[in-house]
Automatic annotation (TrEMBL), chain A:
<protein>
    <submittedName>
        <fullName>ATPase, V0 complex, subunit E1/e2</fullName>
    </submittedName>
</protein>
Automatic annotation (TrEMBL), chain B:
<protein>
    <submittedName>
        <fullName>H+-ATPase subunit</fullName>
    </submittedName>
</protein>
Amino acid sequence: MSTSLPTLLILAFVLGAMVVSWMSTPKGPNQTLIRTAVLLTLGVCYLMWTVTYLAQVHPLERK
Amino acid sequence: MGDEYPTLFRSEGMSLIQLIVPREVAHDTIAELGELGDVQFKDLNPDVNPFQRSFVGEIRRIDEMARRVRYFTAQIEKEKDLIPIRPLYDSVPLVTVGPRAAQTIDELDTKLIEHESRLVRMNENYQVLSDRMKELVEARHVLRETAVFFDRAAGAEREIRTSFDDSSAPLLQHDDREAQFSGNAQFDLEFVAGTIERSRLPTFERVLWRVLRGNLYMNHTDIQEPFIDPQTGAETRKNVFIIFAHGDTLLAKIQKVAESMGATVYPIDSNADKRADSLREVTSRLEDLQVVLFNTGNTRRMELVTVGESLASWQDVVQKEKAIYETLNLLNYDVRRKTLIAEGWCPTRDITAIQVALRHATDESGTSVSPILRELPTKKTPPTFHRTNKFTEGFQTIMDSYGIASYQEVNPGLFAVITFPFLFAVMFGDVGHGLILFTAAIFMILRERQLAKADLGEIFGTFFFGRYIILLMGAFSVYTGLIYNDIFSKSLHLFRSGWDFPVAHSNETVVAVSNGHTYLFGLDPAWREAENQIIFTNSYKMKMSIVLGVIHMTFALCLQVPNHIRFNRRSDIWTNFVPSMLFLQCIFGYLVLCILYKWTVNWENATTVPPSLLNMLISMFLSPGTIDPDSQLYPGQGTVQVILLLIAMGCVPVLLIAKPYLQYQGMKKTQSQGYIGLHGDDTVGPPTDDQLEGEEEANGRVITEEDEDHEHHDFGEVVIHQIIHTIEFCLGCISHTASYLRLWALSLAHAQLSEVLWDMTIANVLGMSGIVGIVALVVIGVMWFTLTVFILCIMEGLSAFLHALRLHWVEANSKHYEAGGYQFVPLSFARLNEEAA
């Protein structure tokens, strides 16, 4: 029984990871760069996975 | 501010500094600052002719030295065998600062003059000797060929006068013949012999025939070897000619014609002995000349080798000195007080470093008077400086190519570090190709230091400059490849598939049955074998492109807010940002939500047919409020869509009118309070800080402060600007959203190309067996890999790079980027070397 629930669970996980990484980047000249990069990476990777997952949960096409 | 680090988010804070430098320490100060690379000097003498500036004499001298160095470089390049130039990092540095600096430069100058004069002399000698050698070679040819003529003539003569011996007889008999010869006047023919270019020969013959009315006998032969001009390398082919004629007038005419046609006449004796002697002489002179030429060549080469040892360091010194004196020319030279005043921009963080450098320069030069640094308050816009490291440099450069950020504006380069490789990867998604890119980048990065020193050429140099971009592009492509489940056009079967295929009997088409699982990560591998794969992936990729596009544009739009806050235009948040955001979200944000919602509904169990989202969007505009209940997405859709449409339509006039209206109100307020412009200009407003400061402070002002061009609060202009902005934004929303469909198009093209390549090469070969099969597999495999790298990675990669860049430059930057700044270009000797290389 495939549902869209996993996307929400993973979303919560990703948001948690974002908060953790925000708080745990070391201070230094690259702090903003690392934060931006990690948050953006988590964000876009999650987006792409979610869209792909959702597209296949209730498939509209039949093979 | 001391604890905070500068970030790439916006430009670093820059200050205008003023340096007061005593004349004795000026050269060394600028040299030190050039090594530091942190100050951009302003031109304090903008009206002065370059020929009237203070340090013109020194620059002229340095230019002469630079010319000599260039001459040496050209001479070294012309040598056939490679002459090694010792690279800069290997050379002993010449010290050009400090008390002995002037002496060092003088010595360098004399040395350069010496080398140059020696080289010039050697080249001249070489040229003269080469010319002489050419003449001698021609003379030798003439002697040889005329010997042939005379032999033939003597042979023919012998047939006529058989009682005489032939001319190849030993000397004694030859003398007899000589006496007899002169006795027979009718056979005493005089002649002119020489060489002429082959192309001129027919003309020569014809002219002679006409001039002498046929009273001549001419014979000519080709010289086999062409003559090569040592300077230009051009080949000329020549012929030897000999013209027999009788009488002084005729001979004189022949000489004149020969001269005019560019032939060279050689004195040849009719006596065979004397000819043999001349031949011997010519040959021996030729040999001598060759030896001399060889020696001259060698000496020249030795000279160039000596030059090559120090050439790089000379180039470096000359470059630096020229830069220093050009910078000194920008300063204000107060001759009476023997000081120079410099103004320039520098990052505020680095002021202490600059002060340390100044003190260092004073110590080096051995004087006791130190330059003074002062920070000046100013209203001018500083240059934009983003402090990048070797990782962020590439990304910042590609975003700067669109335009330099305004001072203190949000820098899109920071976000491009991730969004650019990601959008590239969406168009390039293939694990195998991504790995190829990734390994190529790793290779370049691991050998960074060596490759940075080498001269890489333009194409490979550009790839090397972007090695970190390629690294991230490869990494993200591996990720998107896993999502698209595409590795060299094959699928990975990592998790449980969501489809079961029933057993197929012969060639019938089977319909797979969904088994209730969703493939955990990425596209189900079952789609790879399906006939309607493309229908599914098209729908999926198109919708994903729209989702990613709208989110990217929303993100870019939000970057406006920090700009409005920093530049003190908070009202713009309400007049520009909020209406734009509402417009975008009410139409396209709604579309994205519908896409996502439609995917979460199980349409098998639903009461309605799954509606086409495109038709839904179109009918939202064309017939708002009316929803066919059979094809509705959710109940209440009609009302919701009408509300959204009204909000979006309402935002357009707000966007158009709100900001000009507020400005108009502001203007009316100041006007009504009775202020008039103090300086007779049309702009009405409270007196600016600039004017007040000018009244209060008499000193400590910037020297070359012109009237800053204030933003004309011309009402008409603001209205026009706002109209353009509104139209651009609203139309742009639609066209840019559609433009993101290129993410789908390119990824489809890439996947298809990859599949075609596999099907046409390796797929044909895998079935073959035996030794033939193995050989064929290897050969085709190599071909497949080469084509993969060149077509799929390089060509497709460049294409996806370009499109990803376009998406950033047009779709994203138009939402927030002002790009009105100018780049911070400090005086930096390191950069001079880069530019020259």
